Amino acid sequence: EADIYQTPRYLVIGTGKKITLECSQTMGHDKMYWYQQDPGMELHLIHYSYGVNSTEKGDLSSESTVSRIRTEHFPLTLESARPSHTSQYLCASSEFERQYFGPGTRLTVT
Amino acid sequence: RKEVEQDPGPFNVPEGATVAFNCTYSNSASQSFFWYRQDCRKEPKLLMSVYSSGNEDGRFTAQLNRASQYISLLIRDSKLSDSATYLCVVNMVGGSYIPTFGRGTSLIVHP
């Protein structure tokens, strides 16, 4: 099994709060990704990284930001949470085109 | 036109049935192909890679048709536990490429 972790697993937070979703992998993968997925809907790529100090925006416009200071760590930050940010956020890393997903963070903004 | 297209279903089949899904892709230069399985409210997990010559893993068979630009997944002797969403993933080989996911095909296996 892949060693990729996400915390918190569940988060309920009020509008306007700043939040950081954590993602770590111990496999030494250079590529990492953040996806947003609503229940029963498709995955949307919101950010990705080719390696340290590399970050790119994905297909879905997002008000979040990411950083990649260390290979193993790829946190996602929402500066001011809104109810429209309520969703599941999935982190992944990849080696040789195969992706490994973390368990996800289910975010609810009230 | 989306780069990777799948019929969202749901496919409703009885236990023991054989069911097949197709996934079409638009980029003829695509080089790597995968099927992932995603259970409700869980993360996607790799089911199998798809090789040019086709490959089989137990009850699951994956095939690639480069000429028609589609991949397929065949499930034989369906089990209740096969109920899930099956995601098709297409990618290029190389450092700068990002995988493209289909929207998934929902399978419901009933008793």
Structure overview:
With 110 residues, chain A is mainly beta. Chain A contains no helices and eleven strands. Chain A has strands spanning 4-7, 10-13, 19-25, 31-37, 44-49, 56-57, 64-66, 76-78, 87-95, 98-101, 105-109. In chain A, the strands form two sheets. In chain A, strands 2, 4, 5, 6, 9, 10 and 11 form a seven-stranded mixed sheet that branches. In chain A, strands 1-3-8-7 form a four-stranded antiparallel sheet, with no helix packed on it. Chain A is globular, with a radius of gyration of 13 Å. Chain B is an all-beta fold and 111 residues long. Helix content of chain B is 0%, strand content 52%. Chain B has no helices and eleven strands. The N and C termini of chain B lie far apart (37 Å). Classes of the chains: A mainly beta (110), B mainly beta (111). The A-B interface holds A 30, 33, 39, 41-43, 45, 48, 50, 58, 88, 90, 94, 97-104, 106 and B 32, 34, 36, 41-46, 49, 87, 89, 91-93, 95-99, 101-104.
